[in-house]
Amino acid sequence: MKKTMLLGALMLLASVGYAQESRQDVSASVIGVFTPQVNGNAVQMNTTKPIGFLGSYRYMLTPRSALELNYSFAQYISKYSTSFLPNVRIHTRQQEITGAYVYNFRNFRNFNPFVEAGVGGLIFTPIRDYKTTNFDTRQNTSIGALFGGGVAYELSPSWDVRVEYRGFAVKAPDFGLTNFKTNRWEVISIPAVGMAYHF
After folding, report:
1. How many CB atoms are closer than 10 A to CB 17?
2. In b/e form, how buried is each residue of 24-40, taking b as 16+ CB within 10 angstroms?
3. How many angstroms separate the CA atoms of 53 and 191, rounded?
4. What's the pLDDT band for 96 if we cut at 50, 70, 90?
5. How far apart are CA 143 and CA 26, in angstroms?
6. Which of 103, 105, 126, 134 counts the highest number of beta carbons within 10 A?
7. Can you give the residue ranges of every domain in the chain?
8. Statement: residue 161 has pLDDT above 80
């Protein structure tokens, strides 16, 4: 009888411990946005290299698998060159809304490496101010693929530092102008460094 009671008490403690285990986290990160030069249809597109913000929410399905929702924001100058328009600048607001699957590898001391893949959209919005030289532009929303990986360093059971590389494959924006249509895809590199809170 004592053994049964002891076994029952241990199982109860184990289940309570599992229920209290962190299955969710939120993170805030600083990002860089690095786009390649895009050439197509006699159009060349470049951008400046800004710093932005990334917010993420993860829900752990298992100790290794998670689902993640992301929102990021950055502003930069998109530069277009054609044979008729050699230097057009568009002040651009880029917003990301994505969902991803995250796989966590086995922990090494306090380091937890992970990879992720998902889909979502990038919203390119022209800002009509003094940094823009062509005001006849429209917002673009492009659907693409997110991929990447990184490592989380555990500071405590509730906090970790997260460093990751994120890539987004998407069609280059044209802002609704035929003259700026490259018909090319680009991979936007979005490295991120931030803090995550587990609850």
Report:
1. 9
2. ebebebebebebeebee
3. 11
4. very high
5. 24
6. 126
7. 23-198
8. yes
